[in-house]
């Protein structure tokens, strides 16, 4: 049961081949069996999950439409706010906080019949590329428990790869869905900025954050996206455009890759840190696309080399602002010595509640925004952002999809990069351009390294061109199926 | 005359009268239980996002247009950061380098002369909550006010006295009430001001060192706080000292300003455009709606009352002072009443009745048409003045038409000379002593006889006719 795809589960549950409760129980059992070694879940809500599954079964018994995700067990990155279930963003500063409301994406998943198993591990406040920055425990890569699962949605990727849930939600600010998907050998989709509501997503960098699915197949990712996408009047940045039937783009009869124009950016294959095995795997994938009838050409994204700096200026500036609300006044942690002043309370609370990476980014963002430096840093970074976007616009005048590596390397070892933040930041070098430009991007598995670690292929499309993106990814998936199972945590 | 001249600039915060808050559907109201008017957005719960209330924008644009500002068609909302317990997000959403309205001005009458105070800008922002300190070790926070929409009106430093500043505040209150965008109530905090005050040698172009006065929440305090602060600065300067740049609070109990915090370390608000909110776009439709909602403003009304309706300046002021009164007055005149009589009745008996009943002119039980009707009855001599007062009281209590009241209760004035004379003769005959006294020269007794006739007719006799008839009878008999 744990090997079934989300689409299979929804079909079988709706057809009453299996009950949603049985599916939920099988996955909860799997979590119980392996997650103490893996660390994908921060919180399992077994009772809640079984109750939801029971409700799905009851609806089906009454002859009601259970929704397109009937009984599909999902996990949620812990930055997604869940009514009645503790939500911490993997930070001590929110430990114990039980939200009174569901975020929009969460509510839409539930409405579609999905069963929420619990909250998944991530880097604290989604800041990181390895999920080692969780304040509670690191998450490990199911392919090799000495390796990181990537980040910041590492728990979301690891849980899906290890069959703890059929699909999950992550958030992607600079690659935080695609990069862990690549490192864990699953599909990760970052939709167009504004396609999925951010209401109820603990904010890291508002102008970059986007919620998206992680799944084992492109079809499953499409299925989940279809459930969560769409205009939300509670998010002023959400896009008011109809939601296409994304599943149609991934259906077996859909166009495949024939006739699609793929562009391979020179800059992404010339980077210093690019692992030769990753380069080779991506080149082989591109050859397969061409062999299947796609047109492939080289393109240039000349401002790529400035994107990383611009990204870290914008993201940290926004983060320093978004995290100002964690002050110990209204919820979460409060640390105050008896007789402490208000300022003492703020300092003690924030000092104890935030981890080192979060503090680093708050400091950097505060510096970037301080009086007299705004023009030099933040405004300059926004100008670079506009240039990066223009590069992509120019590329998309010639090609339908940009194709490139997702991560410069396969999964690295735990602790390997934690001492050197800049090395860690480079893990997102291929993904963050997409966020700066607000574009949809997907990572699909495209092979294993000699060390047996997954390698991801990234595809990027113009705004709201998710159907094209999904068609291309599903097309690739059909010509090069990725069937390997993660070995380490399998019983 | 002092050799010093004060230079004052005011930042006035006007609370906009929208149903909901600036960035969420939470109700914006006064006087609810603490923290009753909150939601995830107001509480800044993780994951909550702001969505701009279009009505607040429309109100701000209405104010900007009424002040002659230029309206920025595309502006930005910015985050202004500081830590304070009543500021839930750790930043206030405000506007910084791209305010909604720029330029324009507000006309203020000082000593009978119109002085235009030019404006730097008007921008939209949200209010913070309120910290409640009850003297104990703990403080509590009430976030009902947090997120309520405000317009900040920033004047150029062109105000030259405390009286001038108070008059400017009054002009703004009158304006926002006319525009129906705020109740302008200083006691409930709907209108607040911070003042920047400096003093310089009269005639100098250079500005002196500036002190920011915060926490001014009544018209009386505007004047008192500024008078105190100006005198304080003059004292410092006359004593050869230097004014320190700082923020001071007005302590109403002690009647003094006190330092709040120094300005040596300039606060760094780290403004930047709010990435949760798209640019604020004022489209043609919103502009048109805002423009259409601007009524004839007080100065124009006052001028019209004098020039076209022939009211004196005092009556014109009284009628134009508040929009509800002016609208009521206009409706009474439109219903056919002579303007002067309408103004008199409104200022007199009607206001008194409203006051007694604790009602406002907006929900006056006597409609403008009914007041015009009453004035018409009086003008036509159909009823006497005293009867008119009674009819008004009755109409106020019941909402009935004055004509109906007069007809039903038989209050129509007796102007028929024959009928009045018959009654007057009886009265004269019944009071021989008073008649004798009158004829002996105590002519003031005429009033007594008039009173008796009025009493006998239940007040319905035409007083002028009664006067004439009695005079004739008393003088005649004495001839």
What is the compact description of this entry?
The complex is a heterodimer of chains A (491) and B (479). Chain A is of the alpha/beta class.
Chart the SSEs and their pairings:
The complex is a heterodimer of chains A (491) and B (479).
Chain A: H1 6-14, H2 20-38, E1 41-44, H3 46-61, E2 73-77, H4 104-111, E3 115-120, H5 154-161, E4 167-172, H6 178-184, E5 187-190, E6 210-215, H7 218-228, H8 246-250, E7 261-265, H9 266-269, H10 276-291, E8 295-299, H11 304-322, H12 342-353, H13 356-369, H14 375-396, E9 401-405, H15 421-425, H16 432-437, E10 441-448, E11 454-460, H17 466-479
Parallel strand pairs in A: 2-3, 2-4, 7-8, 7-9
Antiparallel strand pairs in A: 1-3, 4-6, 5-6, 5-10, 9-11, 10-11
Chain B: E1 4-15, H1 54-66, E2 70-71, E3 74-75, E4 78-81, E5 91-94, E6 101-102, E7 105-110, E8 113-126, E9 130-133, E10 139-142, E11 149-155, H2 162-178, E12 191-201, E13 211-216, H3 219-238, E14 246-251, E15 256-262, E16 272-273, E17 280-281, H4 284-292, H5 298-307, H6 313-320, H7 323-334, H8 339-357, H9 368-379, H10 385-398, H11 402-409, H12 417-430, H13 432-439, H14 446-456, H15 463-478
Parallel strand pairs in B: 13-14
Antiparallel strand pairs in B: 1-11, 1-12, 2-6, 3-17, 4-5, 4-16, 6-8, 7-8, 8-11, 9-10, 12-13, 14-15
Helix pairs in contact in B: 1-4, 2-3, 5-6, 6-8, 7-8, 7-9, 9-10, 12-14, 12-15, 14-15
């Amino acid at each position: 049961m744990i090997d079934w795809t989300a689409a299979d589960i929804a079909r079988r549950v709706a057809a009453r081949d299996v009950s949603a409760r049985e599916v939920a129980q099988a996955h909860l059992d799997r979590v119980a069996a392996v997650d103490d070694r893996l660390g994908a879940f921060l919180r399992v809500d077994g009772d809640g999950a079984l109750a939801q599954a029971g409700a799905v079964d009851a609806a089906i018994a009454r002859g009601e439409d259970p929704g397109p995700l009937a009984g599909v067990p999902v996990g949620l990155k812990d930055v997604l706010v869940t009514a009645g279930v503790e939500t911490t963003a993997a930070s001590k500063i929110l430990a114990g906080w039980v939200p009174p409301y569901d975020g929009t994406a969460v509510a839409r998943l539930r409405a579609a019949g999905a069963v929420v198993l619990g909250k998944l591990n991530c880097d604290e406040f989604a800041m990181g590329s390895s999920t080692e920055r969780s304040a509670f425990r690191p998450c490990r890569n199911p392919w090799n428990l000495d390796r990181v699962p990537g980040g910041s949605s590492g728990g979301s990727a690891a849980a899906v790869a290890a069959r703890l849930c059929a699909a999950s939600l992550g958030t992607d600010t600079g690659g935080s869905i695609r990069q862990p998907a690549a490192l864990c050998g699953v599909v990760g989709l970052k939709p167009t900025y504004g396609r999925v509501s951010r209401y109820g997503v603990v904010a890291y960098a508002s102008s970059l954050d986007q919620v998206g699915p992680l799944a084992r197949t492109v079809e499953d990712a499409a299925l989940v996206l279809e459930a969560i996408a769409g205009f939300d009047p509670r998010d002023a940045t959400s896009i008011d455009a109809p939601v296409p039937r994304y599943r149609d783009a991934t259906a077996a009869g859909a166009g495949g890759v024939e006739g699609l124009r793929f562009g391979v950016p020179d800059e992404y294959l010339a980077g210093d840190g690019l692992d030769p095995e990753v380069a080779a795997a991506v080149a082989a994938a591109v050859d397969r696309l061409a062999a299947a009838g796609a047109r492939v050409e080289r393109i240039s994204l000349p401002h790529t080399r400035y994107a990383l700096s611009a990204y870290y200026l914008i993201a940290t500036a926004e983060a320093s602002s978004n995290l100002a609300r964690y002050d110990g006044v209204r919820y979460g942690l409060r640390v105050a010595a008896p007789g402490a002043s208000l300022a003492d309370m703020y300092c003690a609370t924030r000092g104890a509640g935030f981890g080192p990476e979060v503090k680093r980014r708050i400091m950097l963002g505060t510096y970037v925004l301080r009086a007299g430096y705004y023009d030099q840093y933040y405004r300059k970074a926004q100008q670079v952002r506009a240039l990066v976007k223009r590069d992509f616009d120019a590329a998309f005048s010639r090609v339908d999809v940009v194709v490139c590596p997702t991560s410069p390397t396969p999964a690295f070892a735990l602790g390997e990069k934690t001492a050197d933040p800049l090395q860690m930041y480079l893990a997102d070098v291929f993904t963050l351009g997409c966020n700066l430009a607000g574009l949809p991007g997907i990572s699909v598995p495209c092979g294993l390294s000699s060390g047996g670690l997954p390698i991801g292929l990234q595809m990027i499309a113009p705004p709201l061109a998710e159907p094209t993106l999904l068609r291309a990814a599903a097309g690739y998936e059909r010509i090069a199926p990725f069937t390997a199972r993660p070995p380490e945590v399998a019983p | 005359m002092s050799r010093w001249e004060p230079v004052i600039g005011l930042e006035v915060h006007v609370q906009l009268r929208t149903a909901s808050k600036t960035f969420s559907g939470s109700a914006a109201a006064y006087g609810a239980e603490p923290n009753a008017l909150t939601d995830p957005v107001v509480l800044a719960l993780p994951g909550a996002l702001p969505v701009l209330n279009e009505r607040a924008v429309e109100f701000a644009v209405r104010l900007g247009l009424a002040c002659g500002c230029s309206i920025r068609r595309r502006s930005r909302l910015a985050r202004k950061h500081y830590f304070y317990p009543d500021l839930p997000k750790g930043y206030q959403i405000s506007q910084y380098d791209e305010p909604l309205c720029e330029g324009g001005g507000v006309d203020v009458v000082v000593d009978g002369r119109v002085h235009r105070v030019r404006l730097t800008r008007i921008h939209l922002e949200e209010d913070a909550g309120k910290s409640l300190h009850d003297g104990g070790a703990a403080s509590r926070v009430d976030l009902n006010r947090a997120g309520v929409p405000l317009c900040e009106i920033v004047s150029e430093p062109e105000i030259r006295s405390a009286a001038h500043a108070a008059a400017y505040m009054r002009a703004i209150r009158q304006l926002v009430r006319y525009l129906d965008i705020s109740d302008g109530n200083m006691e409930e905090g709907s209108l607040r001001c911070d003042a920047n005050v400096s003093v310089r040698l009269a005639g100098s172009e250079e500005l002196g060192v500036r002190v920011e006065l915060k926490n001014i929440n009544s018209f009386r305090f505007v004047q008192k706080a500024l008078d105190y602060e100006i005198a304080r600065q003059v004292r410092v300067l006359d004593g050869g000292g230097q004014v320190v740049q700082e923020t001071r609070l007005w302590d109403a109990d002690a009647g003094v300003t006190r330092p709040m915090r120094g300005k040596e370390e300039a606060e760094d608000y780290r403004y930047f455009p709010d990435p949760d909110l798209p640019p604020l776009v004022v489209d043609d439709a919103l502009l048109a709606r805002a423009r259409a909602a601007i009524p004839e403003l007080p100065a124009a009304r006052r001028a019209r009352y004098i020039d076209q309706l022939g009211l004196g300046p005092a009556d014109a002021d009284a009628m134009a002072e508040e929009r509800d009164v002016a609208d009521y007055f206009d409706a009474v005149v439109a219903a056919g009443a002579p303007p002067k009589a309408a103004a008199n009745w409104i200022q007199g008996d009607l206001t008194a009745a409203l006051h007694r009943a604790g009602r406002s002119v907006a929900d006056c039980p006597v409609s403008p048409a009914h007041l015009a009707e009453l004035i018409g009855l009086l003008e036509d001599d159909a009823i006497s003045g005293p009867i008119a007062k009674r009819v008004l009281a009755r109409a106020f209590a019941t909402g009935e038409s004055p004509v109906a009241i007069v007809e039903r209760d038989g209050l129509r004035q007796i102007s028929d000379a024959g009928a009045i004379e018959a009654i007057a003769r009886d009265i004269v005959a019944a009071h021989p002593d008073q008649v004798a006294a009158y004829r002996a020269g105590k002519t003031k007794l005429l009033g007594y006889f008039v009173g008796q006739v009025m009493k006998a007719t239940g007040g319905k006799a035409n007083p002028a006719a009664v006067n004439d008839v009695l005079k004739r009878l008393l003088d005649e008999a004495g001839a």
